[in-house]
Amino acid sequence: MSLASTLTVTSLTIELAELGEESFMPSVQALLEPPYTLGDGIPEEVAAGVRWGKAPNIYPYPMQENYTRDTSATALTGVVLENEHVKASFLPQLGGRLWELTDKASGKSLLHTQDRIQFANLALRNAWFAGGIEYNIGTRGHSPTTCAPLHAAVVRTPDGLDLLRMWEFDRLREVVFQIDAWLPEDSKVLLVAVRIRNPNAETVPMYWWTNAAVPQTPQTRVLAPATHAYATDYDGSMTRLKPTDFHGSDATWPDRNKRAADFFFDIAPEERR
Questions:
Q1: Which helix (H) or strand (E) holds 194?
Q2: Do residues 243 and 231 touch, judged by C-beta distance below 8 A?
Q3: Distance of alpha carbon 119 from alpha carbon 147, whole angstroms
Q4: Contact 188, 86 (CB under 8 A)
Q5: Could you give the count of Cα atoms lying within 13 Å of 60 in the half-sphere of its Cβ?
Q6: What pLDDT score was predicted for residue 2?
Q7: Segment 102-123, tens digit of pLDDT
Q8: How far apart (Å, rounded) are the C-alpha atoms in residues 78 and 89?
Q9: Whose CB among 40, 65, 261, 266 lies 3.0–4.6 Å from 126's, allowing a Cys bridge?
């Protein structure tokens, strides 16, 4: 007999830095995002998307820049989804981060998770931390809610399954985003669905990315059904290239790539994303 799927609201003790109070100064400074210089071979549809909807600043969100460097054991609210195959732990107080995902048959952790949560200046509001799976909405960069609490509730489906629902109003785009996570009784995979609701009469620019941290070793490789990718370099350039030949190295092996860039695989429409 298989173990029933459970959803448990619990307390998780994590070595955590103090996030500190939000800044009282209005965050009207320009985002550190250079204007893109588009190379040859960039389709007009992609070029138009790059130019559209850039946020001038992060206002009305205040900056999160008063965190400390010291950590201490801190109790956080956790939500654990578990069946006989998978165990997943979420942190609704920190952007809904999926902090741990374990394959119970092998005992293997499927995500890279730090032994502590240490904040650093990498997000749109400054504070960001590494590890797990992070949900980002609105514009290029780590989301304004990545180190902020989300609303959270347990929702029971008509067939009696409990799912975790987290949601928030994004103040940059003025839309509501919703993240549902559930684990059917016999499922070997965690299921997550994202919904964005636009209550406005007009179309709003939108960008969503789910950021998964995985352990990186010399044997780690990233593969996709594509021969080319769009690379956005940190000098503001965008080029279409073969990731297997990026400045003389095969960047599909991240450990061999010594130059920071973001790769967006150019996957054919008929291929699975």
A1: strand 191-197
A2: yes
A3: 9
A4: yes
A5: 5
A6: 56
A7: 999 999 999 999 899 999 999 9
A8: 6
A9: 65
